Amino acid sequence: MIRLRTAVYTADQNGGNVEGALRTLRQYVYSHMNTSLASGPNAVHPPIQLKYTYERLQQAQENVLGQGDSSLYQQAQQYCEGQTQIGSEVIACIKDYAVSHGANLAPIPDGSYKFDFTSAKWSPDLAGWSLVITVLAGIAFVIGSIYHWWMKRYA
Length: 155
Hints:
- The chain is built from six helices and two strands, in the order ααβαααβα.
- The protein has helices at 2-14, 18-31, 51-63, 71-81, 87-100, 126-154, and strands at residues 48-49, 114-115.
C-alpha cells in the first residue's frame, strides 16, 4: 500500500495519471484488511492530500484573470491601485473586482485534491481466512471445554 501511495504522490508531482494511481490505491485499500492510510493519533485527515494538484487548480483559477494579458486583470489592477491599499489588500481587491465583473473564482472544492479510503472489515485473503479460522478455533475450544467439564462432572 505504501508503494501505491508513493505512486500517487509521484504522479501528482510529475503531472502524470493521478486518477489511475488513485484508482489502483483505492482498489487495493478496499480489498485488503488493515490498510489504513492514516497512522497514529495525530495523523492528517484525509491522509491523501495532493499538493501539486491543488497548486495546478489554483494556478488555473488565477489564469482566469490573465495575469497581465487580460483586459479584466488590467482594469482590476487600475481600479485597485487607484485606491490607497497595501500588498495583500491589493490582491484581495483584484480578486473581488474580477468576481464582481463575472470571473469565476470560487473556492477549490476539497474533493478535487483530498482523498481518504476506508479499508475492508474482512477480505478473502490470507489475513481474512486466518481471522475466520482463529474465531472458529476459539469457538471450538470453548465448546470443547464446556463439553469436557460437563462429561467429567456428570458422566
